[in-house]
Amino acid sequence: MKGVPVTIVEPEMGLLPALCSCAKASIDVGAHKGMYTRCLLPLSRQVFAFEPYRELCEQLRLICGPERLTIVEKALSDRNGYGVINAPIRLKKGALSPQYSRASLVAPLKQLLTADPAYYKDLQQRSIRLGKLDDEAIAGVGFIKIDVEGAEEEVLLGARETITRDRPSMLIEIEERHRPGALGRIVSLLGAWDYDLYFWHGTRLNPASSFDLERMQTGPLQRAGARPPRIVPGYVNNFVALDRSVQAKHDWLIGQQT
Asked: For 13-64, what is each residue's pLDDT tens digit?
């Protein structure tokens, strides 16, 4: 890892030792600058990082190095081919800068331009490669992290064979602002594969059935405004998916439904 320190930015990062296996591979979907990739390397047999932006892939190579890391320059989806990804451009230190952390294949990012035109100036469009995880021939997957700004359902559908075969634990970012109804659809999809979805709140994992959308997403974002800080107090957008057949080993993390 080239001696780069790992900073715990999101509380769910503290769960990774319990969700990963050193004997299995981990997959980082939407790796960006490697915040999760760096955490996964010492916890996994091998890490596969998927990132559609070439410049971010180059940064990953410089930061993380080649040891047990495979970087794939593509966006995972439910199909192979090409797609157009949009990244909002904002004014940063007097210069226009694409915000790749908010880039999306599906989210309605044009609303940012009207919500705060003094901050968000335009959208950058780029053609990128798409592919299905099932076509990557990665065996023995123990953990998958997905952060794709609204395209979670497509990633999951393109990973159906891998997930149902290897039964990995998963950490999935799901935000209703990107795709209304996404949480309910993903709960149903994963439920059909014998998975349950949880979110971290307080000191425990809580079942997705107790998630309060207004209190944990809509309200905090409205209070933060069009330029939310990196961490919005009270905002919850990461969900843990656990295979029902092995949930007993995670009982110490799981709270009761409230």
From this structure: 999 999 999 999 999 999 999 999 999 999 999 999 999 999 999 999 988 7
> Biggest alpha carbon distance in the chain?
53
pTM above 0.90, yes or no: yes
CB 37 within 8 A of CB 31: yes
Entry field: residues in the chain: 258
Helix, strand, or coil here: 58?
helix
SS (H, E, C) 94-145: CEEEECHHHCECCCCCHHHHHHCCCCEEEEEEEEEEEECHHHHCCCCEEEEE
Domains in the chain: how many in total? 1
Cα–Cα distance, 58 to 69 (Å, whole number):
13
Q: What is the CATH number of the domain that holds 40?
A: 3.40.50.150
